[in-house]
Amino acid sequence: MGYLEYELAGTGAIVTGAGTGIGAACAVELAKAGAKVALLGRRLRPIEEVRAECDKFTPGALAMSVDVTNGAAVAEAVGKIKEAFGQIQVLVNNAGIESPYQPGQVPIEDFFEMEPEEYLSFFKVHALGHYLMMQAVVPYMKEAGFGRIVNITSVTGVTGAYSSPAYTSSKAAAICQTKAFAEKYGEFNITVNSIAPGMVNTPMKKNSTPEEFEAVAKSVTLGRVGEPIDVARLAMFLAQKHLFLTGQNIVQTGGV
Prior knowledge:
Layout: E1 12-16, H1 21-32, E2 36-41, H2 44-55, E3 62-65, H3 71-85, E4 90-93, H4 116-144, E5 147-152, H5 156-159, H6 165-185, E6 190-197, H7 210-218, H8 228-239, E7 249-252
Parallel strand pairs: 1-2, 1-4, 2-3, 4-5, 5-6, 6-7
C-alpha cells in the first residue's frame, strides 16, 4: 500500500516527542504521506532539524517546544496548530522518558528505592501527557468527523518485565487509557489505538551496550531489535483514513 492510499494528504497531524527516534520517524512518514505536521518536543533544536526534513516532502511543518505535562501549554500549542492547519485529525502520542535501568538490570535491592516524585514523573509523561494531548485534540477531531490517535506505549506495560515498577505501570496506564478513549469517541469516527514496542534502537537506548542489544536480538524471532521506522510504519497504518480497528494495543517486538 502506498502513501496515497492512506488518504492523509492535507490532514493536520501532531507528533509529540518528535525530535528523535520513533517520533522523528513518525513525523517524516506523515509528511511523506502529505500531512501537515506539527512537531512537539521539550528541546527545540532537534525538532527544528526534523521539521526541515518534513518540509522536503510537505512544506509548512511546525516545530514547538511544549511540555506535554502542562495542560495550559498543551492547550495553547494545539490551538495555534489548529489555527495554522485549519484542522487536526491525527495525533501520535510519543513523548516519553526512559527508565534509569538498562534491559534486565533492575537490582532487586533498588526495586523500592525510587522516590515518589521520580515515580510520578513517569505517570506525568506517559499517562497524563497522553491524556492532556487527547483532551486538547478530540474536540477538533469531532468537529472534522474524523480522528486517528496512536499512543506509543511499551511491551513492558503488558508483561511488567524489564524495568522499574514506575515505568512499566505508567505504560500499562497508557494502554488502558487508550481503550477508554476508544470506547468513548468511536461514535465520532475517532479511532484510538496503541503500539507497544519492544527494544527499539533509539537515542533513549544510547547507554545500552552492544552486548545488551545482541542479547535482546537473540530473543527476537526476527533476529534483531526494532528500528524507529518499524514503529513509524505501524503508526501510519493506524493513522490511515479507512480503518476498522480501535481500542487495540499492538505488541510490536519482532516476535519475542
